[in-house]
Design goal:
The complex is a heterodimer of chains A (556) and B (468).
Chain A (H helix, E strand, L loop, with lengths): L5 H5 L10 H4 L3 H19 L5 H4 L18 H12 L10 H13 L5 H9 L5 H10 L2 H14 L12 H16 L4 H9 L3 E2 L17 H13 L8 H8 L5 E5 L6 E5 L28 H10 L4 H16 L19 H13 L4 H9 L27 E2 L2 H12 L33 H5 L19 H9 L1 H9 L1 H6 L4 H13 L5 H12 L5 H13 L2 H4 E2 L1
Antiparallel strand pairs in A: 1-3, 2-3, 4-5
Helix pairs in contact in A: 5-16, 6-8, 7-23, 8-17, 9-10, 11-14, 12-13, 15-16, 15-17, 20-21, 23-25, 24-25
Chain B lengths: L3 H12 L12 H10 L12 H9 L12 E7 L17 H4 L5 E3 L6 E3 L3 H4 L5 E7 L6 H10 L12 H9 L12 E4 L19 E2 L21 H14 L2 H4 L4 H18 L13 H7 L3 H14 L4 E6 L8 H25 L6 E6 L3 E2 L15 E2 L3 E6 L8 E2 L1 E2 L6 E3 L4 H12 L6 E2 L7 E2 L19
Parallel strand pairs in B: 1-7, 1-8, 4-12, 5-6, 5-7
Antiparallel strand pairs in B: 2-3, 4-11, 8-11, 9-10, 13-14, 15-16
Classes of the chains: A mainly alpha (556), B alpha/beta (468).
Chain lengths: 556, 468
């Protein structure tokens, strides 16, 4: 496989130690990495670290495994075929330490404990990755984490600008979470949302029809297209939007004697506004609406018919984009003719996988997580402009606001104060609440706001902002909030007790989910011995520094 | 010097957009160029229409009338202050309206009166004008605050950005602001009720300082860490640099490069000179005293320092005005504090020649019920009142010594010249030189004007021409 232009390849002629690379292929990135590590080595030598601890070290980095990528299933066949066609070399498989951290973060939104990380890394069973994936999919936190993600899209928020109200937001979230927990097939999940009737306080899914800034049929159609078809009606011709809206003219709303309660129901007597277009499916077919049948159910039948690819395809693409950092159609909620999938065969395969599994979310996760494609390292082997779009490496992404603060709390043994300004009733949030579990977007903290938690205003996937700002770096480096956690957190205090080598290992396992490399061990031990301040301060500085490394702050 | 709180966002959004190369490293110049092209909310990735993208970029430069105002200090009387007790006294209305505050203070402008507990402000009346006929009719904190902050009606499909976010767009980094301090600072905590930036997103959110400017040091969250010496900061930074392995393994990764830049900028604030703006200890003691040694007073001093250093929008979120109970007791404590801080701010800005270029506006989401609620459970409180309320406006081109509009004899309704919040905001934007046709970047590419239109059916007599 050739992967670079001659110009870039020539840089490999430089006499740099690159294990086995120039023969097999030109590994430009690896060259840079090892040069950087050489710089580190030189730095350490200057620091007076004994040379023998470093001399034998090959360009060591803990992110990749030594082997080459191997196709593990149909996903890899399709992804690697495309990469080969484009002359893109995929990254190496990720190391076990990277995998355990990645799988925990991606499947259940939390870090492995130091014990879980250690056990996985030291386990020599050949099928340990598959086994870990199954264990994680069975954990309760799977439902917590993915309920958060779906709540972003379904706009679960008590107030502003969408007035769901606290009780209703909680009922909505509870329904989403328990649907995920029990493994409700996703076509059924969609149908229950689409045809829901009842009280906003009692029947969670009716809030789908309330989580809109306005309750007219066109707004409903806009939300239905976005959530279930991954399509933005702004890009549709007007008659297609009007045709879809035709299914939602009879959604009725009425209040009750209980304050803020609202009943959503099918109101067959509701006359559509004059000039309203007849119900027409998005494929252009005119719908027949039988008397006595809720038009929403007619639409759900069409959407969820086994031979209608829209739903399964949009669903598969969303899950893929969550796990692989970008959609096969990107943005993941922008399906349209002039935004084609980057790998159509892959999308078709996943779509079939969804229907074959009976719309089983966990099964779709399992298939993706067990692929070599998902298990590639984040260190790219190719600078090809199409590499990232074709999944040639696992993409780095900053941890989401909620996951990040939960991780810091888990490491330090501290909690957060979350609050909602929305009264009637004021929401009580227990101290031990995890950010990922918060049932309502109106419950928040300044940390969550600063780190780009989505406002849940639009249902667009792009609402979540994982970009790093100077303000965020200030906060993690230097705020009293994070400093208090490090200095006073009881669990971190436990980790800091003991001999320097043990403390170092424990901190690396707790924060980076891996053991330190030899170079890192040397660097840390030199610092611990240097006598700057007392030993607790030195250990605290290590914890502080690890929490501020790019490796901690990103999925990798 | 770069625009620290913005550039990373922009830079990163653009390099990870659909036209990005993923692992290509961009030169700084190229990154900035792209950054600038995507500043409109960094939304290329969302297929923002070119027209919508171009509009806000063109507008800070094009059609800009010559104006003096450069900055805004917004003093937000959070919870709603009573117009009768502050800027619209009704000494003749009788005790059931005035409560124990039966008088009014004469000011240094003939015929203009102000609340009896605001004697220092009374001596500065030539510097400010009072609007006494604001109205929107809402009595809910969140709805009213949204309307006053955005000038838009609620219940629209989109959440509009507040004044601070809009000014951050038109007076911030896109308009040439180069400070390391973010363009919208909140002293000290966010309101948090609605998202300040609305659909413009995280990039336009204000930076809330946290801490308390009345304490020494003012522990601005993230910038000032009491007890950590500069040497220890330097040492930790160096250690982190050595320990940070991933960026060395992936030196060209755009996500990591952007993150590293954000970190450099963060340290510029922690260790460099820019953060010193938050250290008021070098101000003369007498001046600090004049502002009042309390959180509000020192926030006013801090606002002056920030504006002086070029920050275009400073909000002081001044809590404690939602006085359903113990109203007069609280007023006797709070009004002297407001009086002292705001009067000192006006005088100080004028002394430094900054009042010409700085708009001050002081008000809240609504007024309070003119008739005192003596019955239980209030026992002398005032409820919410959105039918008419007041605001103080000064500087930046607003004339002083004027009264705009009037409420009726009891302060219950507008009697003359209704002013809707959209006209208050429009007047401020106009003085800041925001172009009449300026657009806001919208995530779905909708054409949204920066100036809030007057909502249908609301009565208003237009922008505040009398005092502009």
């Amino acid at each position: 496989m050739r992967n670079f232009t001659g110009e870039q390849a020539s840089s490999c002629v430089m006499p740099v130690r690159v294990p086995g690379s120039c023969i097999r292929s030109v590994r430009f990135r690896r060259f840079q990495a090892s040069a950087a590590l050489s710089a580190l080595v030189i730095g350490l030598v200057l620091l007076g670290v004994p040379a023998q601890t470093l001399s034998a070290a090959p360009a060591q980095q803990p992110y990749e495994s030594a082997s080459l990528p191997v196709k593990l299933g149909p996903i890899d066949d399709l992804v690697f075929a495309r990469l080969q066609q484009l002359h893109i070399e995929p990254a190496r498989p990720c190391s076990d330490a990277v995998f355990v951290r990645r799988a925990f973060l991606d499947v259940i939104g939390r870090l492995p404990t130091p014990a879980e990380a250690r056990e996985f890394i030291q386990n020599s069973a050949p099928a340990k990755r598959d086994a870990l994936i199954d264990q994680l999919l069975a954990r309760d936190e799977f439902a917590d984490y993915w309920a958060m993600k779906w709540s972003d899209l379904l706009r679960v928020k008590a107030e502003y600008p969408i007035n769901l109200w606290p009780n209703a937001a909680q009922a909505y979230h509870r329904w989403i979470r328990s649907s995920l927990h029990e493994g409700k097939p996703f076509n059924q999940f969609a149908r229950e949302l689409l045809v829901a009737n009842g009280s906003n306080f009692r029947v969670g899914p009716v809030n789908f029809y309330r989580a809109l800034q306005s309750k007219d049929a066109t707004s409903i159609a806009q939300s239905v297209a976005l959530i279930f078809m991954g399509a933005r009606t702004e890009h549709w011709p007007a008659d297609r939007v009007a045709g879809l809206a035709g299914f939602f003219n009879q959604v009725g709303y009425k209040s009750t004697s209980e304050w803020k309660e609202e009943i959503v129901y099918w109101d067959p007597g509701k006359a559509p506004p004059t000039g309203t277009a007849p119900a027409r499916f998005p494929d252009g077919t005119l719908a027949t609406l039988p008397v006595g049948r809720d038009p929403r159910a007619v639409f759900a039948d069409w959407l969820l018919a086994p031979d209608n690819p829209w739903f399964a395809r949009a669903f598969a693409n969303r899950v893929w984009s969550w796990l692989l950092g970008r959609g096969i159609v990107q943005e993941p909620d922008d399906f349209r003719a002039d935004n084609p999938p980057v790998n159509p065969e892959l999308l078709t395969y996943l779509e079939h996988e969804v229907t074959r599994s009976g719309h089983d979310l966990r099964q779709l996760f399992r298939v993706i997580l067990n692929s070599q494609t998902y298990q590639l390292s984040c260190v790219p082997n190719s600078g090809h402009p199409e590499a990232a779009a074709n999944f040639a490496a696992y993409p780095l992404r900053r941890l989401e606001a909620e996951v990040l603060i939960d991780a810091i709390n888990d490491i330090t043994g501290t909690t957060e104060k979350y609050s909602s300004a929305i009264p009637e009733p004021y929401t009580f949030i227990p101290d031990e609440a995890r950010a990922v579990e918060l049932p309502d977007g109106s419950i928040t903290s300044s940390f969550l706001e600063m780190f780009g938690r989505p406002p849940r205003d639009s249902g667009l996937a792009s609402e979540r902002n994982n970009h790093t700002t100077a303000g965020q770096r200030l906060h993690l480096l230097n705020s009293s909030h994070i400093r208090r956690k490090l200095e006073q957190g009881p669990r971190l205090a436990e980790l800091l007790r003991g001999r320097p080598r043990e403390v170092t290992d424990r901190l690396f396992l707790a924060i980076l989910s891996r053991f330190p490399t030899d170079e890192e061990r040397a660097l840390v031990s030199e610092r611990l011995k240097s006598g700057r301040g007392n030993s607790r301060d030195a250990a605290l500085d290590l914890a502080w520094a690890l929490i501020n490394t790019a490796e901690f702050l990103h999925r990798h | 010097m770069q625009n620290p709180f913005a550039s990373d966002d922009v830079w990163q959004a653009c390099t990870s957009g659909p036209e990005s190369t993923g692992t290509h490293s961009l030169t700084r110049r190229e990154a900035l160029r792209r950054g600038f092209l995507c500043t409109a909310g960094a939304l290329l990735a969302n297929n923002l229409s070119l027209q919508a993208l171009a509009a806000p970029l063109a507008s800070p430069k094009a059609n800009v009338p010559l104006t003096k105002a450069k900055s805004v200090i917004q003093i937000w009387l959070w919870g709603g202050a009573c117009h009768l007790d502050t800027f619209d006294p009704k000494p003749g209305a009788g005790a059931e309206f005035t409560g124990p505050l039966t008088g009014a203070a004469a000011t240094n402008v003939t015929g203009m009166q102000i609340g009896t507990l605001l004697p220092l402000l009374a001596q500065q009346a030539d510097k400010y004008s009072l609007v006494r006929s604001l109205t929107h009719g809402s009595n809910g904190h969140e709805t009213a605050a949204y309307m006053v902050q955005t000038g838009r009606p609620t219940g629209d499909r989109y959440v509009f950005p507040s004044m601070g976010a809009v000014v951050s767009l038109f007076k911030g980094y896109e308009a040439g602001y180069q400070g390391l301090i973010p363009p919208h600072i909140v002293l000290t905590e966010l309101q948090g009720r609605f998202s300040e930036a609305g659909f413009m997103g995280q990039r336009y959110k204000p930076f809330a300082t946290g801490g308390d400017p009345a304490k020494m040091p003012f522990a601005v969250e993230g910038v000032v860490a009491p007890g950590l010496s500069e040497i220890r900061q330097q040492d930790r930074r160096q250690f982190l640099g050595r320990l940070n392995l991933l960026p060395r393994v992936m030196p060209d990764d755009p996500v990591l490069t952007a993150s590293a830049r954000a970190e450099t900028q963060a340290y510029d604030l922690i260790l460099g000179d820019a953060g010193k703006v938050f250290d008021a200890s070098r101000e003369p003691a007498a001046l600090r005293e004049r502002y009042g040694r309390n959180t509000f007073g020192q926030s006013c001093l801090m606002a002056r320092r920030l504006v002086e250093s070029g920050v275009p929008f400073v909000t002081i979120n001044y809590k404690g005005w939602d006085t359903h109970k113990r109203h007069f007791e609280i007023m006797r404590n709070k009004l002297p504090e407001l009086d002292r801080g705001l009067a000192a701010l006006l005088q100080d800005l004028a002394d430094r020649g900054l009042l010409e270029s700085t708009i001050i506006w002081c008000g809240g989401e609504f007024g309070r019920t003119p008739r005192v609620q003596w019955e239980a459970p209030w026992n002398g409180g005032r409820g919410h009142h959105g039918r008419v309320f007041s605001a103080l406006l000064a500087g930046g081109g607003f004339k002083g010594g004027q009264v705009v509009g009037a409420s009726d004899a009891q302060g219950e309704d507008v009697a003359d010249r209704p002013v809707h919040p959209s006209d208050l905001i429009g007047s401020i934007y106009e003085l800041l030189g925001i172009a009449p046709d300026a657009r806001l970047p919208h995530p779905e590419g909708l054409a949204v004007t920066a100036y809030p239109p007057v909502p249908e059916g609301s009565s208003t007599s237009g922008r505040l021409r009398e005092i502009m």
